[in-house]
Amino acid sequence: METITHNLVAVVIQILCFNFLIYPWNLIFTIIFAFISHIIVDDFAVITYHTPDPQKEDKFWLIWHYFIYGVSLFSIVIFFIPYWLSMLFANIMDLWDWFTLRPIQKKIRKKNPESKWGDKYYFHRIVDWVRDKLFFWLPRRIYKRSGVFIEIFLICVLSISLIFLEASIFII
Ligand SMILES: [Zn+2]
Fold first, then answer.
1. Is the confidence at residue 172, as pLDDT, over 70?
2. What is the distance in A from the centroid of ligand 1 to the CA of 143?
3. What distance in angstroms lies between residue 54's CA and the mean position of ligand 1's atoms?
4. 22, 39, 71, 126 — which has fewest CB within 10 A?
């Protein structure tokens, strides 16, 4: 799913861990749960609008991505202090797969298109594995534009729960 959704889940996790656990367990479980949350949240991505490849000629795709990147950045700014640790671990799979491994792989494949280097180092293989085992029953709606409403709905539910959890917001 999108960064904002991972971030909001991460904030919920950090608040709950810090409310119910003492040091150092609050830190340890924040990291563990945030990491695991990426798998679960991404497994549900099949029911939302999630085209595997960028569709830059498609206006709908573009507007949705401008919007979702904007709110994702906004969530990083307002929650960075004090929730950066949980947000970092909730997004570490994307940081590694999309922003580290994939660019390296692209470079290698420019020289050697047959190269399979790196395929087995993708974190999202875990996401796919768990989906096959536990969430195979979810309908695949990744090309359905109405899927954006499911993600927006989730974002709203998470944001409202953050109000009840009295999340602190950092504004410069
Ligand atoms: Zn992901």
1. no
2. 17
3. 15
4. 22
d(CA 71, CA 73): 5
CA of 140 to the centre of ligand 1 (A): 16
Which residue, among 37, 20, 59, 57, has the nearest Cα to 154 in the 3D structure?
37
Vertex 56 angle, CA 111 and 97, to 5°: 50
Q: For the beta carbon of residue 108, count every other beta carbon within 10 angstroms.
A: 14
List CB contacts of 131: < 8 A, sequence separation 6 or more. Answer: 43, 46, 138
Distance 6 CA to ligand 1 centre (A): 9
Cβ(47)–Cβ(150) below 8 Å: yes
pTM score, two decimals?
Answer: 0.93
14-37 confidence digits (pLDDT tens): 999 999 999 999 999 999 999 999
Compute, in angstroms, the gap from residue 2 CA to the centroid of ligand 1: 8
Cα of 77 vs centre of ligand 1, distance in Å, is 20
Query: Quick check: helix, strand or coil at residue 57?
Result: coil
